[in-house]
Amino acid sequence: MAEAGNYPIGSEYPAASRADVQPAPASYGALVPNPPLPPQPGWAGAPARPPIGAAAPVPQKQGAWGLWWLCALTFSIYYLVWYDRINGELAAVLGEPRRANSRWWNQLIPFWALVGLGATAKRLNAAHAVVGSPTRVGVFTAWFWAPAWFGSQVRYLQRRVNILHDVLTSRATRPGY
User: The domain containing residue 131 runs over which residues?
Assistant: First the structure.
């Protein structure tokens, strides 16, 4: 066993046998970086836009007070489901991939949950702007006033999601029907 500090240096290493090294096949060619793979459905980096000619995604409409009571009766378990659902729907409307602050587990982290609510309000504002709706969501109200007033962020945001639903469905119908 070698003593501490007595390690081989430079030319003291034994030479490797060339019989152990195999040449690369000729079909490999020059070393080039791998070409980027096309995005696949379900990948985090895949675009969320619908295919050309497909109907635009429409957020689910839900009663704001019923949602609030459902969240209260399930001890906020349904709140996590709702938060994840509306952020997924907003990502689909905006055609953007989902971010970490749009996932349900974001609401489990105490102060980061308020940042996530603010980001959700911004996404909802962007979705309303994309469809040309004049409705806007107060970011400060969404993350500060509404949660402080008996957990009213679900009612506040769901009402704006319902308006987005109405705008998108009114544009999806054809005139004369």
Answer: 64-172
